[in-house]
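Private note to self, pasted from the team thread so I don't lose it. Backbone tokens:
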């Protein structure tokens, strides 16, 4: 389980939580603002009984949507035990939904069962070197399986993305107003496409999601299919 000094543990502990089951949300969300961007169909037009993996599920609302509304068989992993406990409280009774405490890269490397779709919403993609993470994802996807992930848009910051695929130091804003350092990889769109090609993917789409109240981009959503 993740060290309690981690910024992700601190974030989970500070987010308000109402114990007990929660209703399943009727829309999948990829960005920072609800109702903006693609819906679940970006993972495939027919998700019923399809095997879907989420890398970094948080409290599980997207995974619950896929299982409860679309009938997908969803495995959702997160390295923060607090998040998985809350996800099970909210949605653990849903059919076809499994929550696991696990590091995303370890889960990908230690298993062999293939998935039809893999996705991440501000999760493991972008927080681990794409040259390591993307081949691990490809290994667990069926041929022509779909990968979709959202990351903070690199143009949300005034400075440009680091060259040569290097990460940069960013800060996670906690609910109490403090900030914790995190390492992020934030290629631009051509950079992501190059990394995807090297890992055996064919990029299929890009969505740039804005802040509806401000003239700035907040989220980059990338979709691809395994070759």
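Design output:
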């Amino acid at each position: 389980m993740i060290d309690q000094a981690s910024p992700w543990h601190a974030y989970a502990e500070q987010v308000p939580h109402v114990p007990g089951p929660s209703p399943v949300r009727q829309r999948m969300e990829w960005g920072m603002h609800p109702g903006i961007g693609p819906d679940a169909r970006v993972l495939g037009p027919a998700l019923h009984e399809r095997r879907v993996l989420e890398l970094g599920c948080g409290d599980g609302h997207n995974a619950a949507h896929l299982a409860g509304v679309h009938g997908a068989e969803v495995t959702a992993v997160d390295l923060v035990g607090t998040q998985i406990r809350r996800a099970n409280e909210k949605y653990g009774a849903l059919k076809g939904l499994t929550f696991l405490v696990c590091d995303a890269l370890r889960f990908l490397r230690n298993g062999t069962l293939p998935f039809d779709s893999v996705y991440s919403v501000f999760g493991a993609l972008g927080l681990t070197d794409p040259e390591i993470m993307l081949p691990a994802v490809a290994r667990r996807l069926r041929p022509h399986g779909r990968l979709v992930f959202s990351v903070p848009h690199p143009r949300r910051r005034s400075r440009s993305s680091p060259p040569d695929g290097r990460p940069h130091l960013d800060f996670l804003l906690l609910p109490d107003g403090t900030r914790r350092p995190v390492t992020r990889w934030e290629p631009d769109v051509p950079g992501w496409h190059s990394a995807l090609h090297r890992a055996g993917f064919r990029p299929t789409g890009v969505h740039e999601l804005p802040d509806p109240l401000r003239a700035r981009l907040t989220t980059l959503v990338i979709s691809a299919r395994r070759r």
